[in-house]
Amino acid sequence: MAPTRATRTIENAMRRWGFVLVAGADEVGRGCLAGPVVAAAVVLDAARPVTGLRDSKQLTQAARERLDEVIRRRARAWAIADSSPADIDRCNIHRASLDAMRRAVLQLTPLPDLVLVDAFRIPQLPMAQRGIIRGDASCAAIAAASIIAKVSRDRLMRDLHEADDRYGYARHKGYATAEHLAAIARHGLSVHHRRSFRQPTLFDALVEAS
Fold first, then answer.
1. Less Cβ around it within 10 Å: N or C end of the chain?
2. Global confidence as pTM
3. What is the pLDDT of residues 80-95, one digit of tens each?
4. Which CA distances in Å does 102 have to 11, 39, 77, 141, 210?
5. How far is CA 46 from CA 3, 11, 101, in A?
6. Which architecture characterizes domain 9-161 according to CATH?
């Protein structure tokens, strides 16, 4: 099945309703055992279209990095924010993800009139918003946000790998792969692991023991 192309249909409809600056917001890294959750917000420029936008998970690394460069160059505005593992442990992954998206949106200059969000609504935004189910696959602005968030987080995880290669962050980006779980079993939890995250049984046991 061919990947779905994200379009500007929803953004154009919102502009017909009178919204001028329409942003897309998304996050990556919710399901990881290690590393931050990273959010991005993007206002695309209708006069400088970006072709090939899709959900970042449907793109190769090379395609994401190429589109990341184009989005940053052509967008009217873009911003990135993150919530650290400590933030996630303190308030839970859902709230930490929403907070990162809120901060990314509020960094945009100028601020948008409307924010289109992948699935969720973001608390405490001073402008209109709309949650779009599977927005990263259908809405161009949300897809653009998912791409620059993914590229930014992947680069950060590669940097963590360069600083400490025991866990293999450059390969799995903090997700619960067999390699990652085996590394945790050998070396224990690092400062970059989320102590509150309960997914694999092995990880749960290690958290309880730490």
1. N
2. 0.91
3. 999 999 999 999 999 9
4. 19, 9, 15, 16, 32
5. 23, 10, 23
6. 2-Layer Sandwich (3.30)
